[in-house]
Design goal:
The complex is a heterotrimer of chains A (about 375), B (about 260) and C (about 180).
Chain A (H helix, E strand, L loop, with lengths): L2 E6 H11 L4 E4 L6 H10 L6 E4 L3 H13 L4 E5 L1 H16 L4 E9 L5 E5 L4 H6 L8 E3 L4 H18 L2 E7 H5 L1 E6 L38 E3 L14 H16 L2 H4 L2 E4 L5 E5 L3 H11 L5 E6 L1 E3 L14 E6 L4 H7 L6 E5 L8 H10 L2
Parallel strand pairs in A: 2-3, 2-4, 4-5, 5-8, 7-8, 12-13, 12-15, 15-16
Antiparallel strand pairs in A: 1-9, 5-6, 7-14, 11-13
Helix pairs in contact in A: 1-2, 1-6, 3-4, 10-12
Chain B lengths: L21 H15 L6 E5 L14 E4 L5 H11 L4 E7 H7 L1 H10 L4 E6 L34 H8 L3 E6 L3 H13 L4 E6 L15 H10 L1 E3 H9 L9 E8 L10
Parallel strand pairs in B: 1-2, 1-3, 3-4, 4-6, 5-6, 7-8
Antiparallel strand pairs in B: 5-8
Helix pairs in contact in B: 1-6, 3-4, 4-5
Chain C lengths: L1 E10 L3 H15 L3 E7 L6 E11 L13 E4 L2 H7 L8 E5 L10 E5 L1 H7 L7 H13 L4 H11 L5 H17 L2 E2 L3
Parallel strand pairs in C: 1-4, 4-5, 5-6
Antiparallel strand pairs in C: 1-3, 2-3, 6-7
Helix pairs in contact in C: 1-5, 3-4, 4-6
The chains are: A alpha/beta (about 375), B alpha/beta (about 260), C alpha/beta (about 180).
């Protein structure tokens, strides 16, 4: 039996995590993500899991990685400067192939910026913010329902691909309350265990190695240094380093069709909106108010790896219109995949684009 | 079993310099772990970055070689998520007291059930000899070329003030005492901190008139002031020599602890 | 039918809670859709607090309120910041105990704070009095739904007090003369 609730996005995020079996949360309070931690503090112990408030976001990220190696489904949630502080250990999670979930309820930056206002200014930071070449998975919810569902999905993707998965929410979706239908249960992808006797960092055909959980007799050495398939540091062999980094990227990029989650509306349209997160809602309003086969919509839930092949579905597109709560971070990604103009409808300050602003953009680029 | 059974034979030789004190500390720690009767499968070693932090890579158990300064934060995640695991952290003075200082004091405050062994060589060895938060005043390093002008941290006093249940300090000279101290640390629920002063001939010794390894070890021995003796001096109203450091068991208490095996 | 309701007052009056209760009543007990949003400032007390609710029979796409049709204003500062520009065709409930200005739109004077204090002995339930008056005068949600949503949301042990406050508000809302635009 499903049930209906009237929840805040951040509540739905925490509840979605718990429904997905999240049993470790390490975090540090920061607006506008704090409600996630507060709900975890209240509910996690009742479910037999662990909540710990760490001394900063660096430690929060470290704690969830440590917990993950004991087999936990672990998560942290942050915003703004807290996300910047996590970058170091996000790189560590990538390098050590540690499954974990990081929620970023985005607020206005740079720096402390606008703690209580929405932004999508961390879309490139999530992709490239830690040093070195790598790939991650990032999902963007546009409703309270999706705060629940995509958080749960993030755990499955993290376990399947052994990579940190990011829920890139924003203050609007995180703080608004709306109707949500809670499903009976969430599908749970098990973490593939390492076959005993196999080298711990030797990948299977999907480029993902089996997981040697701590305490299970694997005797695995995990390091952020460049390592061989035994997990041992091997830092001056150029070929080994290149092969490792390429595999870490390829295991995500080569699976982007499987990871991708998007909707295509009116593929024959001449003008095509592309949106993710809260701006999706404005586009939906415009499409509802002006039913027109010549207005299309690529609505992204998976933002990284970017499903560039979806753009090719819009064969008649004369332009792509991208409302973003930033100065065109994802528009730049789209631009490198298409030959038609990409109109970036920028918005800073914390408020959502109004339907009228998007209609004006449609008219201006008709 | 002996401490030797805990080493990964396929990783030898190790990267430590000839004359380095770290091997002594790792041996003492593993000997204490061995005496605990812990199973390898239930024991996890965690470390950050620096010479000391390479230790877990040579040990057969599950191990987590993490980012600079963050070992204790990672270890907190491991221990809280699975309190059945025995978690030991290897760290150094730069890793623990500089970049990781905040994690250190908060782990002491939480009194989380970890044993942290700090190999304090009073310098950044791996990066070639820069000054650390424990470099003594007047000592030379590549970043204190005219002698260090800052006051050093007393890591044990810091741990005591922050709330650790067990704190002791020894040196690479005091092998038996150190082994015993680590064992008491492993046995004590809550946060246990064992500081081991070590010689570093490559980065510290050659810049600070310890050309011979034995000279440095002898210095550590000669400047160790037993806690009992220090206490007697204070009681007698006599001056405590300011060029000596106190060794021995400095705190052993039963404050409420976190993450203790049920 | 889409309703857009704005609540404003000072921090501590339960402005946000009022909006949450209204949205909850619509979603959980009237089988409608609702979106509740709020303005977050750094103040936990004082200042001008504002929260808005959209109630619709259909799924709500654009989640923000552009210009609400219904206002519930419980402080003078809240009026000046979030009520003074109310459009002419809007309707506003003002807590006449605390708001001395009057809008250019239709309005109802509800002495919510005075009644909460004098009749119920607790001015803390003034927001619930205002909610009762709102529902009685605009029917944005049913009275039954409002009652259930209040019971879901208030602290244990205060249910009777809050239901009394709601009923008091309903009476005030029904009895209040609507002031037309002059």
């Amino acid at each position: 039996m499903t049930r209906t609730e009237f929840w805040q996005g951040n509540t739905a995020c925490a509840e979605g995590a718990l429904a997905a079996g999240c049993n470790f949360f390490g975090g540090y309070p920061i607006t506008p993500s704090t409600e996630v931690a507060e709900l975890m503090a209240a509910k996690m112990p009742k479910k037999g899991g662990v909540f710990i408030q760490m001394e900063d976001e660096i430690a929060s990220m470290a704690s969830i990685i440590g917990a993950a190696w004991t087999g936990a489904r672990s998560m942290t949630a942050t915003s703004g400067p807290g996300f910047s502080l996590m970058m170091e250990n996000i790189g560590y999670a990538v390098m050590t192939e540690t499954p974990c979930v990081v929620v970023n309820v985005q607020r206005g930056g740079p720096s402390t910026g606008q703690p209580t206002m929405a932004a999508q200014g961390d879309m490139m930071q999530v992709r490239f913010g830690s040093q070195g070449d790598y790939a991650i998975i990032a999902l963007c919810p546009a409703s309270v329902q999706e705060m629940y569902e995509l958080t749960a999905k993030a755990f499955n993707l993290a376990d399947q691909y052994r990579v940190p998965v990011f829920l890139m929410a924003d203050e609007i979706v995180g703080h608004m309350r709306e109707k949500i239908i809670i499903p009976d249960s969430m599908a749970k992808t098990p973490r593939k265990a390492l076959v005993k006797g196999t080298l711990p960092f030797k990948p299977d055909a999907d480029l993902v190695p089996g997981f040697p959980q701590f305490g299970k007799g694997y005797g695995v050495h995990v390091t952020g240094l460049t390592h061989d398939e035994r997990g041992y540091p091997c830092t001056t062999n150029p070929k080994l380093h290149e092969a490792l980094v390429r595999r870490l990227v390829d295991k995500i990029e080569s699976a982007r069709h499987a990871i991708a989650d998007f909707d295509i509306i009116n593929p024959d349209a001449r003008q095509v909106f592309i949106a993710y997160g809260a701006p999706v809602r404005t586009v939906q309003q415009v499409m509802h108010d002006r039913p027109d086969k010549n207005i299309g919509f690529l609505r992204l839930r998976t933002v990284w790896p970017f499903p560039e092949y979806a753009l090719a579905e819009f064969k008649n597109a004369k332009c792509f219109l991208m409302p973003e709560l930033n100065l065109g971070q994802m528009a730049r990604e789209v631009e490198r995949h298409v030959r038609v103009p990409v109109v970036n409808i920028q918005k800073l300050g914390g408020e959502l684009h109004t339907p009228a602003e998007l209609v004006a953009a449609l008219e201006a680029h008709r | 079993m002996t401490f030797d059974d805990w080493y990964r034979q396929d990783r030898l030789p190790h990267i430590f310099c000839a004359g380095c004190g770290n091997g002594t500390i790792i041996n003492c720690t593993l000997a204490a772990v061995d005496q605990m009767g812990w199973k390898k499968d239930d024991t996890v070693f965690v470390s950050g970055i620096g010479c000391s932090s390479r230790a877990p890579g040579y040990i057969v158990t599950d191990s987590l070689h993490t980012t600079h300064g963050r070992a204790i934060a990672f270890a907190t995640g491991v221990k809280m998520a699975n309190p059945d695991l025995n978690v030991v952290v290897f760290t150094g003075d730069g890793d623990l007291a500089a970049i990781g200082g905040n994690h250190f004091i908060h782990a002491c405050r939480r009194n989380i059930d970890l044993t942290v062994v700090c190999m304090n060589n009073q310098i950044y060895g791996m990066t070639g000899g820069q000054g650390s938060p424990t470099t003594p005043r007047g000592c030379f390093s590549t970043t204190t070329p005219t002698g260090c002008v800052e006051m050093p941290f007393d890591l044990c006093e810091l741990a005591i003030a922050a709330g650790a249940n067990y704190v002791s300090r020894w040196t690479s000279y005091h092998v038996k005492e150190l082994e015993k101290a680590v064992k008491v640390g492993l046995e004590t629920p809550g946060f246990s901190f064992i500081e081991a002063l070590v010689q570093c001939p490559t980065a510290f010794g050659r810049r600070n008139k310890f050309r011979q390894v034995a000279d440095h070890v002898e210095y550590l021995r000669a400047h160790s002031l037993l806690k009992a003796k220090r206490d007697r001096l204070i009681e007698a109203g006599e001056a405590v020599p300011d060029d000596m450091f106190v060794v021995g068991e400095l705190a052993r208490r039963k404050r409420p602890a976190l993450g203790v095996k049920p | 039918m889409r309703y857009e309701v704005r609540f404003s007052g000072f921090g501590g009056q339960g402005i946000i809670l009022s909006a949450v209760i209204l949205g909850r009543a619509a979603v959980m007990y009237d089988n409608k859709y609702a979106v509740q949003t709020q303005v977050y400032g750094p103040e936990a007390r004082g200042g001008a607090s504002m929260s808005q609710v959209i109630i619709d029979d259909e799924q709500i796409l654009f989640p923000k309120v552009a210009m609400p049709g219904i206002f519930v204003i419980m402080s003078q500062e809240g009026f000046e910041k979030y009520g003074a520009n109310a459009p002419k065709d809007a309707v506003m409930l003002v807590d006449s105990t605390l708001v001395h200005s009057r809008p250019a739109c239709k309005y109802l004077e509800i002495p919510g704070t005075r009644e909460a204090k004098q009749t119920l002995g607790k001015d803390i339930v003034a927001n619930i009095v205002m909610l009762g008056a709102l529902v009685a005068s605009t029917h944005v949600v049913s009275e039954a739904a409002l009652e259930k949503a209040i019971l879901d949301s208030v602290p244990k042990g205060t249910e009777t007090l809050n239901i009394k406050a709601m009923k008091l508000g309903i009476d005030l809302g029904k009895g209040s003369k609507q002031h037309e635009v002059t």
